[in-house]
Amino acid sequence: MIQFNTTIYGKLKGKWLLLLCIFASVQVINAQQLQFYNGEFTVMDTVKGNATYAFYQISEDSVQLQGEFKFLSDLYQEENVLNVKKVSIQGNFRRGVKRGNWEYEQSYYTVTLNRIRNLNLESTLNGMQLKISGSYVNGKANGVWQTKRVQVVDNKPQGSSVNSRLNFVDGIASGNFSYDMKVNGEPLTITGKFSDNGFMDGLWKMRYTRDSITVIEERNYSDGILTDLIKIEFNEGKSDTVASVSFIDAKDRLVGLLSKTESLNFKLGEKGFGVLFDNGYRRNDIRRRSQEDGNAFLEEVLKVFDAKKSVIGAVADPTPPTINFTRRFEYVYPENEDSIIDVMKPLLDNMSKHVDTLLDNPTFDINRRTDTLLAKGYAFVRLAQDKVERSKEVIKKINEGEFQFTYRDSYYSKGVPGLNEADTLEYTVDGKKKILVFQSDYYVDSPDDLVDNIYKFLRDLDDQLNDKLKNVEGVIVERQKEQKIYEMDLALIKTFRKLSSIYGNVEALNDTVETIIDPMDVEMLFTKDKTKQASPLQLALYERFVDNKKDELLTKYSGEEDFEEKLKIGKQLLDMMNALIDVFPVLSEIDLMPEQLDSNFTIYTENPFFERKMESKILTNIYSKGVKVLLPHLVDELKLYRSGGDIRIKVEEIVALRKRLNELVDYPEDNQDVRRLDRRLRRENVPARIKRLLGL
Fold first, then answer.
1. Using an 8 Å Cβ cutoff, are 113 and 104 in contact?
2. d(C-alpha 285, C-alpha 218), whole Å
3. Which residue, among 574, 553, 552, has the nearest Cα to 484 in the 3D structure?
4. Three-class SS of residue 694?
5. Residue 535 and residue 587 in contact, taking contact as beta carbons nearer than 8 Å
6. How far is CA 432 from the centre of its chain?
7. Cβ(141)–Cβ(171) below 8 Å
């Protein structure tokens, strides 16, 4: 009999029993009363549902299932709410061009899943359906376009009506526009019209809600130019006019255009902008801030007709509907500005490179703290860098067309900041702060002739910069030379310390070194102790340096007055010492080469007369010419080195010789090429020819 223990599988009503009791003894069945269960049940710890089954209670904590078992889970989902959307598009093309009527639908729903009944999923939808319909002629929006918004509540649409209409002529918004919608019982409305050019025109009225407050706003436009705005808020039965703005600046310009005044420096631009009307207003200007709430409402409503933001752009459209909204005044500036900018650009570039190079010079930065001339020069260079960058920013804005539709004279009403008045500079020498005043004959303190005045200011600045740096750059060069010589002195000391340590301190630099290093360093670094042992070749090369090359080069170095020549000698001395350091371990190996090669070319054969084997050489000519002639010759040349390059080259040649000889001795005895080479070397005693025959 198979039983289930609830201490293992959990309480019957809360756990899924994994085994079914198929067999049971007749005696037990007869002794127990069959019981039935229909109710809540949980499987896999988290999946809840309903189960129906029968069972025998075997003991307090053990049951035995009997008969049919059924379990049906509740609707199982990770989240209780789903957000879904639906898109539908229907229309016609002719050779890739939209024509005739088109319908777009975009719906957003919040779906609440309830249950499954008879294999059908029951759910509740809440959301919004948006339908857009309009017609195209030759691929361009034409005629009245309209939208329908339907709110869906608990699966039921709450009425269906056209809530906005916009007319298009040849792809451009034109004529009347209306919008009417209710949200939470509050009406949202817009009425207005567009000119033939797609610009907002005439009276526009809006009613919308902001922060639970009803706002009524009226605006007057003149073919895209905003001239008046009034905004009234209604809260708890009280009205409050929160904005009443007359755009006098725009009106004056319109009057000037209508009167055809010849001296105007602006015209009416044809380019369309967004809903914000801007005539160069600062961010906190009331003329800009008063538009913000209404513009947000307009953008939200009208974006359904914008192919970049709406479903109507979901299908390729080479000529999407166009709404120009507002326009701006296009400003005209002096014709000679472009030519002045062309001349100014290389001046700006050269000044920028000049000051950047100086400020990146560590010698200039370090020494300005203790030298008055360098301190003043550094402060002036920092000033010049700032002026150059400010000028470049203005020219960049002009070149990129930033002031094409923004009135530059308003932006620079007090001139260019940083170029419009004298500057007081502060610098520090030996910890004391001092003052330096910069003045110019050409301040850019008004928008008049802006580009020409910037150019004059920069030329004056460049002249003053060159004048003040005339002596500064000479001092920097001298300080740099001093610094480089000092660094070379230290490098010579450090390198000789390492060289002396490696080769055993066999000798010290003579008294000439005292002219380039601190006497304390001389006493600490150099000694005549020869306690350390060096190989013969190491000792020979080091003694040549100490007894010959060192004195020669140090005397030249310490006595040379020309900066470039002094550095050249110092580099030659450094290179020679570094070469000796680099080849040190190889030199002792070269001393052992004759013995090692002799062993490699020696063979031993059985001696019929004595127990000791007979010793003989193989490839005797290769051995004698390579080991007895060429190797000593190369070593002698190495000992006569004149530069670090000589040392490295000769050591490389000796190492290559060892490698080649070891290769030849490893060839099989019957190799004809090796035997032929051995015969050719028999009468050869000239090192250069031996080297060539060995293929070095």
1. no
2. 19
3. 574
4. coil
5. yes
6. 42
7. yes
Contacts of 249 (CB under 8 A, 6+ apart): 279, 287
**E strand or H helix at 51, and its extent?**
strand 47-59
Residue type, 79: E
Helix residue ranges, H only, 601-643: 620-623, 631-639
**What's this model's pTM, rounded to 2 decimal places?**
0.54
Structure tokens at 360: 């990146």
How far is Cα of residue 558 from the mean position of the Cα atoms in its chain?
50
End-to-end CA distance of the chain: 95
Q: Are 152 and 129 in contact (CB under 8 A)?
A: yes
Segment 131-145 mean pLDDT:
93
Going from the C-alpha of 566 to that of each of 115, 378, 551, 553, 643, the distances in angstroms are 95, 30, 15, 10, 16
493: region left, alpha or beta (phi > 0 left; psi from -120 to 50 alpha):
alpha
Q: Assign 475 a pLDDT band (cuts: 50, 70, 90).
A: confident
Return the bridge partners of 180, or none.
Answer: 189
Angle between helix 472-503 and helix 536-544 axes, rounded to 10 deg: 150
Q: State the DSSP string of 439-488.
A: --S----SSTTHHHHHHHHHHHHHHHHHHHTTTHHHHHHHHHHHHHHHHH
Residues pairing with 112 in the sheet: 81, 124
Burial class of residue 653 (count of CB atoms within 10 Å of its CB; 0-12, 13-18, 19+): middle
**CA pair distance 38, 31, nearest whole angstrom:** 23
Q: What is the pLDDT of residues 566-595, one digit of tens each?
A: 888 889 999 999 999 999 989 989 989 898
Provide mean pLDDT across the span 546-572.
Answer: 84
State the Cα–Cα distance between residues 240 and 231, nearest whole angstrom: 9
φ/ψ of residue 425, rounded to 5: -105, 145
Question: Residue 488: CA atoms inside 13 Å, Cβ hemisphere, count?
Answer: 24
pLDDT surpassing 70 at residue 59: yes
For 138: left if phi > 0, alpha if psi spans -120 to 50, otherwise beta; the answer is: left
Cβ partners under 8 Å of residue 654, min gap 6: 590, 593, 631, 634, 635, 638
Q: Which helix (H) or strand (E) holds 616?
A: strand 614-617
For residues 652 and 641, the answer to whether their CB atoms sit within 8 Å is: no
Token pair in block for residue 256: 């000037």
Residue 496 — very low, low, confident or very high, per pLDDT cuts 50/70/90? confident
Q: What is the three-class DSSP state of 630?
A: helix
